[in-house]
Structure formats: structure tokens, C-alpha cells
User: Which sequence fits this backbone?
């Protein structure tokens, strides 16, 4: 994927004929590139897909352990830090001694989600990542509330690749601290940091 050209806009341009001619020159330049050089800005969607950045914030994916269980330990960090409050989690006890809890219910309402990536930043287990998929289609609201099993299955169906995920940025620490402070302030809960499982 090529680099993006940054255009600095001069806001002090006085009104008159010159700005109009400048705008028309830009329009004709783009038109000639499209017509004669075949550098069209548009793509034939859905047959063609536009390349997106590896940091793209698309629809979420819940990652799994080697045994197929969710990596999520139901610590509520993602739900706490979510500005849209679109994540709903119910926890259950696991029989293993090294993993205290797991989500019996994990839902994300994609119609409320603002795709900010805070849930990815806050997760201590790297259990939730974002994909590069942005095809959000549904005929009812209930179809766009994705549950735990559908979030886990998305890892197998990802044709666009992984998007925003913890190993590419270092802003997770301040977000986690803010989430912990909010959890303590609003609910009086101080969760222990779960152990990492490889």
C-alpha cells in the first residue's frame, strides 16, 4: 500500500477568481488522470476491495487458547473502558486453578460501537482484537449484536486479516490504568491482573 499524500490547505486565500481557477485546475487534473492514465480513485465494490492499514479498526474478534476456549478471563476491563458501553459480559468459574473465570456470555452491540479500540488497549490477556473487515450488514438489530461464539468463529473467517491489535502499539498501559481507576471509583472493584497464558 502506498503512502498517503498530505495536502496543506491555505485558509488565508482571499475570495475571487484565483481560488476558483485553482479548484478547477485540480478537478481537471484528476479527471485527466482518471480518463487517460487509468488512475481511478474509485473501485468496483464489492468485486474489488480497498486495501486497508494493518491498524484498521474493523469488526472485533475474540481470540482462543490452544484448546479452543476463549482467552478472555472476564475481568470486565473492556466493558469498563468502552465509551459506548456496548460490551456486555457475564462471568463463570472455570475448573482450572490457573484460570479463575471465563465469559459465559460476551456480547458486542456493533450498532452502538464507535470502533475506538479501547477494548483492545484495555485487555490484559490480548483476548480481543479488531479485524480489517468493515462490511457491516444486517436486516435486524439482533443480528448485529454479536455473541461470544460468533466472535470466536470470526477468527477462522477473517479474509481481510487482523487489524488493530496490542503488539503494534504501546498505549495500552494508560488505558488500562484509567479503566482500573474507573472500575474502583464506580463499582468499588479492584481486579487482580490475570496471568498470561501462552
Assistant:
Amino acid at each position: 500500500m502506498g503512502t498517503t499524500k498530505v495536502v496543506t490547505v491555505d485558509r488565508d486565500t482571499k475570495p475571487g477568481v484565483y481560488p476558483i481557477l485553482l479548484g478547477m485546475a485540480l478537478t481537471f487534473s484528476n479527471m485527466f488522470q482518471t480518463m487517460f492514465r487509468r488512475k481511478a480513485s474509485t473501485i468496483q465494490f464489492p468485486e474489488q476491495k480497498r486495501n486497508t492499514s494493518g491498524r484498521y479498526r474493523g469488526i472485533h474478534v475474540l481470540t482462543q487458547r490452544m484448546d479452543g476456549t476463549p482467552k478472555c478471563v472476564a475481568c470486565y476491563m473492556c466493558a469498563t473502558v468502552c465509551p459506548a458501553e456496548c460490551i456486555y459480559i457475564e462471568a463463570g468459574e472455570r475448573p482450572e486453578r490457573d484460570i479463575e473465570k471465563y465469559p459465559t456470555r460476551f456480547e458486542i452491540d456493533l450498532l452502538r460501537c464507535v470502533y475506538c479500540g479501547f477494548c483492545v488497549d484495555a485487555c490484559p490477556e490480548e483476548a480481543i482484537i479488531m479485524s480489517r473487515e468493515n462490511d457491516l450488514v444486517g436486516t435486524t438489530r439482533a443480528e448485529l449484536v454479536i455473541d461470544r461464539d460468533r466472535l470466536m468463529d470470526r477468527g477462522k473467517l477473517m479474509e481481510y486479516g487482523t487489524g488493530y491489535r496490542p503488539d503494534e502499539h504501546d498505549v495500552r498501559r494508560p488505558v488500562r490504568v484509567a479503566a482500573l481507576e474507573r472500575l474502583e471509583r464506580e463499582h468499588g472493584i479492584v481486579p487482580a491482573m490475570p496471568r498470561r497464558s501462552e
The CA atoms of residues 125 and 196 lie 6 Å apart. The helical segments are 17-36, 77-81, 118-122, 148-157, 172-187.
